[in-house]
Amino acid sequence: MSKHNEALDPEFIQKQKQRLEELQAELQSSLDFRLEDEMEMQDTRTNQSHTSGSDAQNSAQQDNNRAVRAHDRMRLQAVRRALEKIEEGTYGQSEQSGDPIPRARLEAAPSALYTVAEEEVREREQDV
Known about the structure:
With 128 residues, the protein is mainly α. The protein has a single domain (10-127), classed as Four Helix Bundle (Hemerythrin (Met), subunit A) (Up-down Bundle). 73% of the residues lie in helices and 0% in strands. The protein has helices at residues 10-47, 52-88, 103-108, 116-127.
């Protein structure tokens, strides 16, 4: 069901690969930083007595860090898959249908793995 995306010339794909590699490095750095930050907060909490107010604040910060890390991990997974698709020669084709993903969508979201319509359906299904 592979439908080659004619709108994607080699120069565009190379540019996207570079953008994806930069995004991958940024996301990995963010994940590493947030994990380190959370570990430091846990060490601080272990080594000091806290009031219930500071415990609540630390807990909220840890919850926020976990949520951001989960989101970044999902984005990193999509970036890595997009890089794999470049190597496979299938970049710009939907993971679901094989339909071409419009160039404008890939320019806006280089790690897009689905068409806009498919992504909207996936998001609605996740909200259920």
